[in-house]
Amino acid sequence: MTITADLVIRNGSVYTADAAGSWSDAIAVRDGQIVALGSRHVAAATTIDTMVIDIPCGLVVPGFQDAHVHAPFAGLNRLHVDLEALGGIEDYLSCITAFERAHPHIEWIIGGGWSLEHFPRGVASKRLLDKVCPDRPVFLFSRDVHAAWVNSEALRRAGIDDDTPDPPNGRIERDPDTGEAIGTLQEAAAFDFNKIHVPIPSRQTWEHAILEAQNHLWSLGITGWQDAWVTPATADAYRSLADQGRLPTRVVGAQWWEWDQGLEQIDRFIEERNQSTRPTFRAGTVKIMVDGILENYTGALLEPYCRGCGGIQPDSGMMHVDERMLKAAVTALDASGFQVHMHAIGDRAVRASLDAVEVAQVRNGAGDNRHHIAHVQLVHPDDIHRFRALGVVANCQTFWAKADATITDMTAPQIGKSRIRAMYPFGDLARAGATLAMGSDWAVTTANPLEQIEVAVTRTDPADRGARPFCPDQALTLPAALRAFTAGSAYVNHDRGGGSIEVGKRADFAIIDRNVFDPTTGPVGEAEVIYTVLAGAVVYEQ
Length: 542
What we know:
The chain is of the alpha/beta class. Among the domains are: about 5-55 and about 505-540, Urease, subunit C, domain 1; about 205-490, Alpha-Beta Barrel (TIM Barrel). About 30% of the residues lie in helices and about 25% in strands. The chain is built from 16 helices and 23 strands. It has helices spanning about 40-45, 70-80, 90-100, 125-130, 150-160, 190-195, 205-220, 230-245, 265-275, 325-335, 345-365, 385-390, 405-420, 425-430, 450-460, 480-490; strands at about 5-15, 25-30, 35, 50-55, 60, 65-70, 80, 110-115, 140, 145-150, 170-175, 180-185, 220-230, 250-255, 275-280, 280-290, 340-345, 370-375, 395, 435-440, 510, 530-535, 535-540. Strands 6, 13, 14, 15, 16, 17, 18, 19 and 20 form a nine-stranded mixed β-sheet that branches. Strands 1, 2, 3, 4, 5, 21, 22 and 23 form an eight-stranded mixed β-sheet that branches. The protein has a six-stranded mixed β-sheet with strand order 7-8-9-10-12-11.
């Protein structure tokens, strides 16, 4: 029987990202599924009613899947004060001023995206905000979402003064001479402030933010993602959009492990999971933030931070969840059928996360929950092989693996030369047989998969391609990087229908304006997505 295609893409190159890394030159789609590959078979399925896209110079790849993204928060920033793409303090203040003047009736000025390297010691001052917005409270998450920049009015409304003690797992930055609260809140100090004092967005606002993020991600060829921090409010918005048919993208929601609670919160996770069983949204993952970040000395290390390197906390960092509780939590979550998504920056946090999975497997047996560790900035050499042995996926944020100002000015002086040489060991993990997935951590950095893949392959900042590569022996090949952002992330998301271009699979793919495997076409990060196809429907056209 002859199959009639709804959509055909032809006259280009098709990288399938299947297990063999095979290629084709045409795709036929019917009812949202791939029904034929190869020009001969596709021609037989093409009729006068078939929508045909010719791409003589283009490349088709599976739809990218972002395994670690904060879509609602990034979308909310885009609707408010979005500092992500700006270049420094003056630009930040101009943006804040423009938003404040354009929205005279908004009670709180919120948003985020500022970078630590633009401020001395990574600490932003309330006085800068007071100059442009003295009368309304301002709360702006940093780009890495581990700190917040607030003005004096925000501190006043929260009752934070020079004598307010630091919360557990957090820090109120203070003037080293006077003890005055400067205007930067670190870790739990920022999270608690946001949860308690900043007005809660309505469900409609969260829906608008998610749709804003979805449209942006579609423009980059992304057809699925894992939200690395869903709250009850954002989960409610996702469910509402799914019920309205406005969330065709498949989303996995990672519920947040509260640091000040224990195993009792698993009952709440189960209830949320049971409520979130939509075809395009489910919440069967739990996110545990095991440590912080290196730049503010909260990343957990096996050896202390460098003394005398300009640091303010010459210790070994901060475990937000101690090893004993982490083992108990991962074991209980694994037994309850949850996937565990662990944030681990420092080598101590990575080891503790692997230890926790190992204990869970001993007690529960090997399963298929596909636990993963995000960021893996520092991994002790003894732990590299354990990812494959334990079946733990390395969830890589590859855009960070370059010698930018954050690395050279803030991270390197704090951890020393020997550890800086071992940062972001994606190459070692791949050679050891670990399964790699990729996620942007947007809005921490760009959501563009092609820019992230370029850094994974070159270990060089796209803004300074002539610079010396950062730890070049840890680079990935282009096929490995593409597979990580497609098949690898689909594996993490338990998405059997996505991740590769094969007959019978869902028709999710991105069409790129050039064949990035051909070096004569220019840098990978300069390529552009011209179409995004989701379940056979064109959801983005350049």
